[in-house]
Amino acid sequence: MLEDRYCPHCGAKLESWLGPPESGWGEILVCNNNECSFYRNSQKDIHFKDEDNSLGCRYAENPDNGYSSFNLLSYYK
Ligand SMILES: [Zn+2]
């Protein structure tokens, strides 16, 4: 059972998500808030995207690694 964790950027509760098998992650916690400032700001930092294929970074934590935070690359919808 995972702890309840909250995004430090927007305060939304992080949702558990099972990483793809090839990623080597187990269950991770992700901020799925599309209004999250971290997510919004990440949009500006990604230069290789084209207009039809927008990527952003969501705030995520890895419970297997002491809840260390990392950037989860995801498609921007
Ligand atoms: Zn957030």
Sum up the structure in keywords.
about 80 residues; binds zinc ion; mainly beta; 1 helix
Q: Any chance you could write out the topology, listing elements then pairs?
A:
Layout: E1 15-18, E2 27-30, H1 37-45, E3 55-62, E4 68-75
Antiparallel strand pairs: 1-2, 2-3, 3-4
The chain binds zinc ion.
Gist of the model:
The protein has 1 helix and 4 strands. By secondary structure, the protein is mainly beta.
Task: Explain what you see.
The chain has 77 residues and is mostly beta strands. The chain has one domain (15-75). The chain has one helix at 37-45, and strands spanning 15-18, 27-30, 55-62, 68-75. It has a 4-stranded antiparallel β-sheet with strand order 1-2-3-4, with helices on one face. It is globular, with a radius of gyration of 13 Å. The mean pLDDT is 84.
